[in-house]
Design a protein that fits this description.
Oligomer: single chain
Distance between the termini: 50 Å
Helix content: 40-55%
Number of domains: 2
Number of helices: 15
Strand order of the largest sheet: 3-2-1-4-5-6
């Protein structure tokens, strides 16, 4: 089994632990409701809300009331399932469908089993007998559905760069849906809290029923991580903590520091690379212009081994911004024509700046990882990883090596 598959096993264990926690919370709330414990607190909250009316809150709650109706939520779920199938995420599509089906079945079963009268009892036209499941209040169906859907989407998005936006948006939507049910007195607070816990539990439980297998993950990673092998024209090298030690205890431009030091193996690596590649320093040096960077490199004997410097201070943009990388490719180009991104490789120690940023701009990327850090989980994969700069020439050879014809001199 691959390392990625081993990681998947760990994730499954964490999902299982989270499922048990959420189920425990739900069962505790269900027991309290069944025993009528805490009912007085529930009632006092509802009374307080209605003694302090907020017109805007009621209006917003009515909007969420419509959003949670089956004829609105149902087509949205179906559209999401179809979209996942269309982009090749069939297992995730099945997972989302299973989650929402389980949610719908449990909502009906629990409402009929507990038969809790909602705060707005006047809305229960059939309270005396023959009531529909939707007439009961435990758990809040709108909140249950919103939470299950949002947690499922977070689980699906977690291996991608969209994890945090989906998590933030989903959490706000599920929270707002639950609060809206209390504002318009359709549910007690315990109905809503139980729905939050159960919605999360159902989404996590469904993930265990429809897991992403190790084979699926290995296939995705293999497709993502397959390096592009093509001749390399230019190698961009990060400055701080890649070529030279970035001493946080010293302030100002590095050229003016009392003491400076090169990273072990930097001179040897650049000496081997110099005859074959164009070498440019690409750095977020907000306090140093090109001449300042060169002055610092001169102090450790590296100045004569690089063809130029692209500094964030000169560019006006910082890695991982694509504007920075476009400026770097223009500098590496010839006669005002930018170097094609596929012909360049970025080497650096910062995952977000030097790996994710470079890959997003179309460059290849080599992660300098001397401390053996674990790469963030996500869609970005470095084309190569080295623990020492002495390994860089071999890593570049594996990615395609130098062009057979020497590249033109760097502009400027």
């Amino acid at each position: 089994m691959s390392d990625e598959a081993t990681q998947v096993t760990r994730v499954r264990m964490r999902v299982g632990a989270a499922f048990l926690v959420m189920m425990t919370v739900f069962l505790a709330l269900a027991a309290l409701v069944a025993l009528h414990a805490g009912h007085g607190l529930d009632g006092r909250v509802v009374v307080w809300v209605h003694r302090h009316p907020m017109g805007w809150a009621t209006g917003t709650a009515n909007v969420f009331q419509v959003l949670g109706q089956w004829w609105v939520a149902g087509p949205v779920v179906v559209a999401l399932v179809v979209l996942l199938v269309a982009v090749g995420r069939r297992r995730d599509a099945g997972y989302l469908a299973v989650t929402m089906i389980l949610m719908a079945l449990l909502d009906v079963i629990l409402k009929l089993a507990i038969k809790r009268t909602p705060p707005n009892v006047d809305s229960m036209g059939a309270a005396a007998g023959g009531a529909l499941p939707s007439d009961y209040s435990f758990p809040s169906g709108h909140t249950f559905a919103a939470t299950a859907l949002c947690v499922a989407l977070v689980v699906i998005a977690w291996p991608t760069r969209w994890r945090w936006p989906v998590l933030a948006g989903g959490a706000m939507f599920a929270l707002a849906m639950g609060v809206s049910r209390i504002v318009i007195a359709y549910h007690y607070p315990s109905d809503v809290a139980a729905a939050w816990a159960l919605g999360a539990a159902v989404a996590l439980g469904a993930r265990m029923l429809v897991p992403v297998t190790a084979a699926d993950v290995d296939a995705r990673v293999a497709a993502r991580a397959k390096p592009v092998t093509a001749p390399i024209d230019t190698v961009f090298l990060d400055w701080g903590d890649t070529l030279m030690v970035d001493d946080a205890s010293q302030a100002g431009p590095m050229a003016a520091w009392e003491s400076v030091a090169a990273i072990e193996g930097a001179r040897e690596a650049l000496t081997r690379l110099r005859p074959h590649y164009r070498l440019l320093v690409a750095t977020n040096a907000d306090a140093s212009r090109e001449q300042d960077v060169r002055a610092a490199l001169y102090r450790v004997g590296l100045d004569g081994l690089v063809d130029g410097v692209v500094s964030s201070r000169d560019v006006g943009a910082r890695k991982p911004d694509k504007v920075f990388y476009r400026a770097a490719l223009l500098r590496a180009g010839h006669a005002g024509v930018p170097l094609p991104a596929r012909d360049a490789v970025m080497v650096g120690d910062s995952w977000p700046n030097d790996i994710a940023g470079a890959k997003a701009a179309g460059l290849r990327a080599v992660w300098f990882n001397p401390h053996g850090a674990e790469a963030p989980t996500g869609s970005t994969v470095a084309d190569a990883e080295i623990g020492a700069l002495a390994r860089l020439p071999e890593a570049l050879d594996e990615l395609g090596g130098p062009r057979t014809v020497a590249p033109p001199d760097a502009a400027g």
